[in-house]
Amino acid sequence: MWPVRGRSGRPVGGPDPRRTLIIVRPPLTVGFDLDMTLLDTRPGIAAAYRALSAQTGVPVDADAAVARLGPPLREEIRRWFPPERVDSAVAAYRALYPRYAVQPSPPLPGAREAIAAVRAQGGRVVVITSKLGRLAQLHLDHCGIVADALVGDRFAAGKSNALAEQDVHVYVGDHVADMRAARAAGVTAIGVPTGPCSADELRAAGADAVLPDLTEFPGWLSARSFDPPPGRDTGWACPA
Q1: CA spacing 20 to 30 A to 179: which of 116, 161, 194, 217?
Q2: Model-level pTM?
Q3: Which residues does residue 49 pair with via DSSP β-bridges, in sequence order?
Q4: What is residue 5's DSSP assignment?
Q5: Backbone angles phi, psi at 108, to 5 degrees
Q6: Could you tell me the residue range of the domain that residue 51 belongs to?
Q7: Is residue 52 part of a domain?
Q8: 50 in the same domain as 167
Q9: Each residue of 101-135: pLDDT tens digit?
């Protein structure tokens, strides 16, 4: 008979045949990227870039910029501004963002239903994005999307760390860097080719599954069960 253990993992008393071992595990946690996974932020971001061009006098091809959504803002700004102006351009863009980028950015098809599917299984929803957390929260509030946790300003390896910190089981994203981050964190990687990366690119980056869009996610989720991510605390045993 297994010894009964408390939260600390130390035995509580000796073996007792009248007791049943129950493993209490953390709830299913699903992480979502924001831009082009949950929301179509292209119209709003393009508007913010156009406002930035008007304010700074530096031409930015907004259509080209939104075709590359995923990496951190600073990488895109470096394409258009000289090194000595990058910091000020980033600050200016972020100051313009709430006015220009939030209202025109709708949820993508199936976004709300995907979140509801996680809730239906008693799960947690975590949004992990390269966008600053305060700006990402403006989008969620505007669209009426509620996350249990929001982690901003993370990309590539930074997303892997956030996935581990949040005990995520499944991460859904539209970028090859999202797939690599999920695989590096040891969690299930689900790709949706609704952003700049094709289905083949997402598979090549390590996606465990590629769905056409989030409308397919509830059915995919309901057909599966998930163990805690490898190497994580799986909970504790307690007597019935």
Answers
A1: 116
A2: 0.84
A3: none
A4: B
A5: -75, 155
A6: 42-100
A7: yes
A8: no
A9: 999 999 999 999 999 999 999 999 999 999 999 99
